[in-house]
Amino acid sequence: MDLDLAQVRAFTVTAERLHFGQAAAELFLTQQALSKRVARLEDALGRKLFERTGHGVELTAAGRRFLEPARELVRAGEAAVAAARLDERPLRIGVWGHLFAPMRTLRTLVDREPGLAIELGPRPGFTEAMAGLRSGEIDFGLGRTHALDEPWPPAVTRRLVRLEPVKAVMSRENPLAGVDVLSPADLRAGRMWFPAPAGRVGFLAAFAAHFAVPADFAGINLGLDPFFGYLHDHPEHFSLICADVEVPPAADLHEAALAGPVPLYAWHAVWRTHERHAVLPQLLAAFAAAARDEGWLDHDPQRHWLPEEDMPSA
């Protein structure tokens, strides 16, 4: 019998969730498409794998017997694909959160490990990066992950790799532009702006809610130059970006450090849990070395603030 790996993966994820809706979301499928894959697998095996109950779904006896070998089959398939591709291409990295300049972090790693065989490409956001991991279009992602309405998918590993201070940027005509250091509470006298819906900028939305800072999330993200140009032309607004992002002198903007507490922007790395690309261990080791040498994961709750979902694990 020739088993379809996509169908087997659909079964294993559903068996782990015991919920078709959650499994479909993890696999980036509709529930209808997921149900069809499971039904075709059951037809091929000649056995029912799930029993629908009033409370959801449960594995049948055949489903319980099939689960662990099915997991092994999925792992073997992923390992086979990784082995076949190993010598043919670099590790493909997708990045998002472009106004916070994720390339700076990767440039630091490449400077530390110049032999890293990586290939970079932008992703519109976290959801698109997760879809790229699932489809195999990318092998690794770097950006801020969002809160999920369900447990983190076991097929994807997530790791906090950097906590970066942010600063306020604004027109020199902004009423807040008279000082070089502001507290988050000071920002309540202004109005924060960012060119994206609040749902795509979880850090800024959480910051605004926590410190009661008025905020407008509107507009289109066209890159740093239009971003700086908007702030220059709209002195009623300020925005937040990572402290190391360079503001060109031609932008003619005021920059203010934040303190009391210092907000930290969290960068996460995500990759397929069973990824076997040879460059992955080198890249993770480079992240760990940079965190150790440059304090990328330093966090003091008395001096820093970041959203609860970004808190480092104890």
From TrEMBL:
Keywords of the record: DNA-binding, Transcription, Transcription regulation
A single MF term (Gene Ontology): DNA-binding transcription factor activity
Gene3D superfamilies noted in UniProt: Periplasmic binding protein-like II, Winged helix-like DNA-binding domain superfamily/Winged helix DNA-binding domain
GO cellular component: protein-DNA complex
Residue span, HTH lysR-type domain: 3-60
TM ranges: none
Pfam family, one: LysR_substrate
Classification via InterPro entries: LysR_HTH_N, LysR_subst-bd, WH-like_DNA-bd_sf, WH_DNA-bd_sf
Membership in a protein family: Belongs to the LysR transcriptional regulatory family.
Protein name stated in the entry: DNA-binding transcriptional regulator, LysR family
